[in-house]
Amino acid sequence: MPITTITHRVNINNNLHFIVFFNTIILITSTLQTLKKLGLTSAEAKSYDFLVKRGPQRVYPLAQGIGTAPANIYQALASLLDMGGVVLLPGRPKVFRAQPPASWLPLLAAEIAESADKAATDLERRRAPAKEEVNEIRGKAKLYRLIRHSLQNADRKVILSANPEEIDHFSDLLDSAGRRGAEIVLFSEGGPLSFSPPPGWLATWTDKKSDENLWVVDDSWAMRTTGSNHTERGRQIVDPVFARALGQGLLGRMAWVTECDPESPEGRRIQRLMGADE
Predict the structure, then answer these.
(1) Which of 110, 75, 79, 80 is nearest to 97 (CA)?
(2) Per the confidence metrics, is the pTM higher than 0.85?
(3) Distance (Å, rounded) from C-alpha 207 to C-alpha 213?
(4) I need a surface site. Which of 10, 17, 55, 175 has the fewest CB within 10 A?
(5) How far apart are CA 66 and CA 265, in angstroms?
(6) Given its phi and psi angles, is residue 200 left (phi above 0), alpha (psi -120 to 50 degrees) or beta?
């Protein structure tokens, strides 16, 4: 299902060659920086970028094309092979081809998000328990009061995955948070939203239902809830590091489920939110 968001188009006069060239440089730099945020080294990012744009290449033309020593290219290609970013074509001499960005980069982002979630969970488990940071809550009324209080104070970011009925229940508070300037990211699991997201929201949905709902507010507070109306329980996490990791994991899952193109406005926004250190 497509991600919906509101974007603005900017027209550039093609006669201003300097401006066009300048923006091209910015685009290339931005692409390489994004690839590095996904864990690629400088040589790996340049090699993958070059292969995507120029097609299959042998090692020496590739090294010449990006201005890097062949030895570094061999190492970068070996790493990209292990990560699944390139394939070695049959025959001699060796020729390498890049995997399509739309299929590989979301997988890479999802793997990183999953690793971050696992690392955060492991680190949380190793830390001495702190009652003021992790609280177990039982009962829908108590959970809703905590979520409502958190949304009333949200001013930077709200990321959530929940069934459409639960999202609709808090739609007025989400709207208020958005009006205060908070970025709103919704992942409706179990069907589409019952309302149209306002301009600027990032929203998507899937038919597949989940037994767990996740709320991440301002990268500092998170709530996981599970169960039915009668037995609903939740875990409140007041821990910025863990909360942010949970938000990154959710963003990576959104990109994976929706097969989001990383070069689309929505894909770039997800990558920015995953890498933001606010």
Answers:
(1) 80
(2) no
(3) 15
(4) 10
(5) 27
(6) left
Question: In CATH, which of 3.40.50.1360, 2.40.37.10, 3.90.1150.10, 3.30.870.10 is domain 103-275?
Answer: 3.30.870.10
Task: Please tell me the distance from the alpha carbon of residue 60 to that of residue 161, in angstroms, as a whole number.
Answer: 47
Look at the chain and count its residues: 278
Three-class SS state of 55: coil
Find out if CATH 1.10.10.10 is the number for domain 39-98.
yes
CB 121 within 8 A of CB 209: no
How do the domains of the chain map onto residue ranges?
Answer: 39-98, 103-275
Q: What is the pLDDT of residues 1-39, one digit of tens each?
A: 444 333 333 333 333 333 333 333 333 457 888 888 888
**Bond before 93 cis per omega within 30 degrees:** yes
Residue the block writes with tokens 């990383």: 262
- Is residue 249 within 8 Å of 223, Cβ to Cβ? no
Q: Which residue has the tokens 């990032």?
A: 202
| Non-local CB neighbours of 202 within 8 Å, separated by 6+ positions | 3, 4, 5, 183, 184, 185, 186, 266, 269, 270
Burial of 266 (0-12, 13-18, 19+ CB in 10 A): buried
- CA–CA distances in Å: residue 261 to residues 7, 38, 141: 15, 15, 39
Is 232's pLDDT higher than 50?
Answer: yes
Whole-number Å distance between alpha carbons of 65 and 59: 10
**Residue 230, token pair as written in the block:** 């009668």
Place of tokens 């009333």: 152
Domains 39-98 and 103-275 in one fold: no
C-alpha angle 54-40-101 in degrees, rounded to nearest 5: 45
pLDDT (average), residues 198-225:
85
